[in-house]
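Lab channel / #folding
Pinned by the channel admin:
"Please post every new chain as: sequence first, then the structure tokens as a reply. Keep commentary short and put observations after the output so the thread stays searchable."

First post following the new format, from NK:
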Amino acid sequence: RRHLVVNRLRPRCLKKLGATIDDAMDFVGLPLLGVVPEDERVILAGAREVPLLLAGKSRAAAACRNIAERMEGRRVPLMRIR
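Reply from TO:
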């Protein structure tokens, strides 16, 4: 089954475009699995070859953990994007 993951979300950019996550879901026609906020720690973890979930606490890591939980069939609420 296919789902949508919105990666590197910038809330200000969405506002400038007048778009929402719902618009993205409607555009691709898929249910939302999760939203990963933009976070420089993702790039740093990759450059250091360290898995993001082991690189320390970050909102992006928490979002990825939540997505993995949902993929396992658990009910996890969506994070609030600031």
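NK: Residues 65 and 74 are 11 Å apart (CA to CA).
TO: also worth noting, Residues 59-71 form the longest helix (13 residues).
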